Amino acid sequence: MPNDTPDGVLVLHEDWLTQNIATSAASGVRWLVSSDTGNTAFIETGSALGVTAKGTTDTTDNDMCEIGHGLLAWSAQHGYMAMEVRLQADVVTTLALTVGFNDDALDDSNTLPVELSGTTFTSNAGTFVGFVFDTDATNDFWHCFMVDDDADTTVPIADLNTGVAPVAGEYQTLRVEVYDQGSGKQTRAVFYINGKKYYEMASAVDRDALLTPHVAFENHGAAAHVVDIEYITVWMSRPAK
Question: Looking at the DSSP assignment, which residues form a beta bridge with residue 174?
């Protein structure tokens, strides 16, 4: 998928220059956020990093912050959809982090859409396609993952492991592209980190699944965590009629 915008493509680029984040839907609110008690949900913030959406946890184990577009309106059935997120975490030990298309703007359940312990994924979302990082995993790298209609991918974890990890205090750009493959078929998903393709999933989520771009992170230890999102960009083919 090209970075320019062809005719018939809906584009949402969010750089947080407008105050449009809130915990519940309202006029002018585009992004919904939630966090556990004692944490600071993602909020537009100006700092030495520039303007970012910043989320902060306290030191309580398993505390979470999340942000998602307020509408379940993104699907690949008219051609493709894609999302790109540039973010960084100040601490990458004792951290779990997910970036992808999710079936809920807010999970509000003290869990991420997908978690990874050892070599076992636990999908709390019914439909998700994106990246999973979890220091509870045997290998602390970004993993590509999908769950569709409550069924996790059966691809071996060794194939889903990108071998690339977040680096504390450094930005990474994560991109997920989801392509329609026609009626009666699941979509195809392609995963990129910093512009490099790491994995292609031949069979991913349903083509008509209505999803939302979503980022969430969780403390898996006794350290506070801060995640800054510089931007989120989403593309989707428009229907012909």
Answer: 85, 193
DSSP character at residue 28: T
Pick the CATH number of 14-237 from 3.40.190.10, 2.60.120.200, 2.60.40.150, 3.40.50.1010: 2.60.120.200
DSSP-assigned letters across all residues of 133-146: EETTBSS-S-EEEE
Total Cβ atoms within 10 A of residue 12: 15
| CA atoms of 85 and 173, how far apart (whole Å) | 6
Helices of type H across the chain: 157-160
Report which DSSP code applies to 194. T
CA 105/CA 96 separation, integer angstroms: 18
Report in angstroms the alpha-carbon separations of 64 from 12, 34, 56, 102. Answer: 25, 8, 9, 16
| Total-model pTM | 0.95
Sign for the CA dihedral angle at 158, 82, 234, 206 comes to: negative
Express each pLDDT in 74-110 by its tens digit.
999 999 999 999 999 999 999 999 999 999 999 886 6
- Residues 144 and 176: their CA atoms lie apart, in Å, by 9
Residue 159 phi, psi (nearest 5): -80, -30
